[in-house]
Amino acid sequence: MRASRNTLIKCASIIIAIVFSLIAPVIIADAKGKLGKKEWVITVTAPDSVSGYHFGVQTFTIKARAYDAPPSPLPLRLLSATSEDGAMVQGVWRQSGKTFSLTFELSCNDGEPCATVILRGKMRSNTRMNGQAILILDARDRENVAGYETVNGTFEGVQQ
Length: 160
Prior knowledge:
Elements: H1 2-32, E1 40-46, E2 56-64, E3 77-83, E4 88-96, E5 99-105, E6 115-123, E7 128-140, E8 148-159
Antiparallel strand pairs: 1-2, 1-8, 2-3, 3-4, 4-5, 5-6, 6-7, 7-8
């Protein structure tokens, strides 16, 4: 009877340890992962491209999900980005401590190239972030290492 009780306690301890090892990274990431809490309003500023594409200043509302179902095997999580005109697109984000990156596609408008937006930055406080914005346009540029026209800008964000 005593041996089966000890075995039961050991099994319960192992199960608790396994469950904690699966949940702890999510809890720790969420504690640092302020990007996955609430919504962020992010303002991106970028100069005109060499070919004349005008991005200017655009604002996006970002809703980054803290948990994905099914969970991704990569350290990426899903997000939705809504532009000022109401167009919503999907993207991905990741965060390590205070640094993060997120990326999403701009909606393709008539007469303008499609573009990918990459934001890399740091959390400056619980409610403020900023960093570098990179726009990769669907316009070939043989002189650019990436092979596509890119525009470098900046961004700032505040949590709502």
